[in-house]
């Protein structure tokens, strides 16, 4: 060691070239052993990367079909461990039973150009890069001396002790991957829900149009009878106009329903990779797992872990650390140990307390997300129960209206009822049938919305 200098709160000791090599080698070992994988993990990771040391059965080539479109979610993290959050996402199963709704989901997933998937890939790459942050940094340095000479040198810096800062950076990168994974799951479920909303809207409109279309012939027959009765002077023009208005309204409803269905299906087709125009009907939607954690809560938990890691890294920067540095240049080699940090000032205590408060705020956001998710699911569950009750009542009302119509139709044939009276009863029957159709599709849509809130519209391994 040649000299010791003190400047700006830093302590620096310099060595010659041979001592520099020893210092940097020890620095790399000390910084790496703080949080690098153990020997067994490193050997296993090396075998997996280079492809030797495995049984012949394990070394068999993977079919091209299995690797053509790899899954976006992968629970294996860059540090060799597995993420419980991503594993939970992968094990989720869809509530859509085989049928048209599941076909709609598959069609829109096949055409999904997901921005969230690119963000997850970027976060994964950042996490892989963060696993090597314990290695010394190496970079050139070019300076102009007071005599006008250009001096180029190579600077090597290795962290010996940083109060856990490098570990916190790796934890942050890991949590960032989990946040991106949950965001991808949310994006996928929201896309499927949008497609289901369009499909159910189209199906409901088409079925309402079919109800009115099947009744239009009978209503037009009533209008013909009224025209003949008015021409014969048996009925006045007011009764004829009343029936004509009901026929016009029914035709207008049919046209509006068909337009709604066509618009929704065209929009759905724009989202899908395969034709969906030939799909029809509704398949069952089961209840999601009551123990499944809503995606909003999972994302809040991952964001809390990321915030805690960020606070830990910031805290490490507030405290003194120890680095081994060296410079190799044409003028000679130098090296030394540098102890220091951002500096210990009068506000250090408050800054550290603020970082601790960040941890508490992160946990508070998790609780807030849990409460919000519970409220939303409770609201949707209440709406579902109400819609199921209304749908059952609408079916009963439709049956009662159909029976009442049959009774009035028989009385009309017997000459005991007038056409305007029977037309009103027939219109009530059509209206109750249309309401029953709408409520039935509202029930299916609400079930899908509950599943989306939980994150159970798509199988985890299809994300």
UniProtKB/TrEMBL annotation:
Residues 352-404 form a coiled coil. GO terms for molecular function: efflux transmembrane transporter activity. It comes from the Bacteria. Keywords: Coiled coil. This is TolC family protein. It comes from Pelagovum pacificum. The lineage of its organism: Bacteria, Pseudomonadati, Pseudomonadota, Alphaproteobacteria, Rhodobacterales.
């Amino acid at each position: 060691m040649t000299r010791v200098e003190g400047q700006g709160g830093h302590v620096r000791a310099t060595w010659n070239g041979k001592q520099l090599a020893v210092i940097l080698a020890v620095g790399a070992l000390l910084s790496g052993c703080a949080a690098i994988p153990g020997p067994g993990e490193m050997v296993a990771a090396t075998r997996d990367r280079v492809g030797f040391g495995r049984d012949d059965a394990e070394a068999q080539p993977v079919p091209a079909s299995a690797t053509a479109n790899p899954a976006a979610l992968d629970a294996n993290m860059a540090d060799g461990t597995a993420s419980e959050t991503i594993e939970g996402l992968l094990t989720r199963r869809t509530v859509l039973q085989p049928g048209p709704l599941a076909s709609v989901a598959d069609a829109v997933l096949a055409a999904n150009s997901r921005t969230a998937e690119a963000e997850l890939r970027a976060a994964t790459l950042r996490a892989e890069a963060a696993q090597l942050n314990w290695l010394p940094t190496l970079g050139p340095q070019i300076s102009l001396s007071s005599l006008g000479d250009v001096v180029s040198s190579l600077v090597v810096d290795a962290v010996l002790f940083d109060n856990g800062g490098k570990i916190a950076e790796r934890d942050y990168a890991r949590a960032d991957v989990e946040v991106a994974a949950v965001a991808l799951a949310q994006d996928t479920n929201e896309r499927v829900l949008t497609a289901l909303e369009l499909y159910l809207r189209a199906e409901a409109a088409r079925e309402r149009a079919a109800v009115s279309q099947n009744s239009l012939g009978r209503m037009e027959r009533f209008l013909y009878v009224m025209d003949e009765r008015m021409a014969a002077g048996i009925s006045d023009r007011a009764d004829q106009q009343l029936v004509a208005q009901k026929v016009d309204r029914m035709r207008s409803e049919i046209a509006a329903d068909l337009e709604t269905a066509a618009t929704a299906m065209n929009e759905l087709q724009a989202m899908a990779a395969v034709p969906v125009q030939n799909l029809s009907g509704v398949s069952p939607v089961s209840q999601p797992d009551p123990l499944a954690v809503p995606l909003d809560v999972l994302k809040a938990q991952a964001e809390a872990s990321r915030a805690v890691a960020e606070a830990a890294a910031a805290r490490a920067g507030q405290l003194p650390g120890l680095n081994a540095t060296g410079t190799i240049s044409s003028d000679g080699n130098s090296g030394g140990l540098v102890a220091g940090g951002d500096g210990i000032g009068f506000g250090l205590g408050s800054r550290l307390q603020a970082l601790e408060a960040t941890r508490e705020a992160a946990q508070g956001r998790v609780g807030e997300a849990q409460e919000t998710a519970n409220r939303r699911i409770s609201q949707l569950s209440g709406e579902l129960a109400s819609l199921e009750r209304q749908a059952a009542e609408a079916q009963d009302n439709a049956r009662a209206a159909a029976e009442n119509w049959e009774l009035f139709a028989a009385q009309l044939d017997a000459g005991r009822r007038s056409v305007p009276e029977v037309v009103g009863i027939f219109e009530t029957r059509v209206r109750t049938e249309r309401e029953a159709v709408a409520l039935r599709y509202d029930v299916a849509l609400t079930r899908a919305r509950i599943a989306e809130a939980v994150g159970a519209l798509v199988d985890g391994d299809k994300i």
